[in-house]
Specification:
The complex is a heterodimer of chains A (227) and B (10). Chain A is globular. Chain A is built from 10 helices and 2 strands, in the order H-H-H-H-H-H-H-E-H-H-H-E. Chain A has helices at 3-26, 34-47, 51-59, 68-92, 109-121, 128-142, 145-154, 159-185, 192-204, 206-218; strands at residues 156-157, 223-224. Helices cover 72% and strands 2% of the residues of chain A. Chain B is mostly loops and 10 residues long. The radius of gyration of chain B is 6 Å and the shape is rod-shaped. Classes of the chains: A mainly alpha (227), B little secondary structure (10). Chains A and B meet through helix 1 and helix 4 of A and loops of B.
Amino acid sequence: MNIFRISADLLHLASFFILIFKMKATKSCKGISFKTQLMYTLVFTCRYLDLFHVLGMMITFNFAHITGLTLYNTFMKILFLAASYYIVYLMRTELKSTSDDARDTFVLWHILAPCAVLALIFNAQFTILEILWTFSIYLEAVAVMPQLMLLIETGEADSLSSHYMFAVGGYRALYLVNWVYRYATEPYYSNWIAWIAGFVQTALFGDFFYYYFVKIMSGDAALKLPT
Amino acid sequence: AATEAGHDEL
């Protein structure tokens, strides 16, 4: 565990809290893409199936392979799953009337199908768990596309929404640094699938980061895109 | 193992 990895995870965690706080404080999920949030629930569900493995080890009192890192990962995975499901739940129940569904027009099959095909072709091992893990990595990389499309459609984002997007985009950028660090310091550490997907994921936020920093520098509350 | 790389991350 290095400083980049822990910062990335905490930033990721912060993104959930910012979004939930925004939705609770303003009683609105305006400007937030339900489709992107739904994709994140799918991403975490497919990626964290190994939680059952950890659970299995715990209920059989097989603690030999449970390390501090396992406990940390397990704790965070449960938090990420709970937070993302809670967000989707809020957007479909009490905040449904404020949801930007009419402008959230991205066709999810356009990312789901290619990610599924890529996961079946490019994976480290042809097993169900490994393919689902790989699918989740590919899907996470592009899951922000409905949100970016909604942002372009709307032309601006309120302060909390833009902080949320900065946190969720920034976390993967920090993972890139973490991977470079691990590659340099750990023997045999290599994971091309995650690296390429992580790079694509960060690159998709490129324009957003630019406008976010323009907003921060100018002291504006709302992020505005050029018309 | 190949499958373990990256699986210790979130």
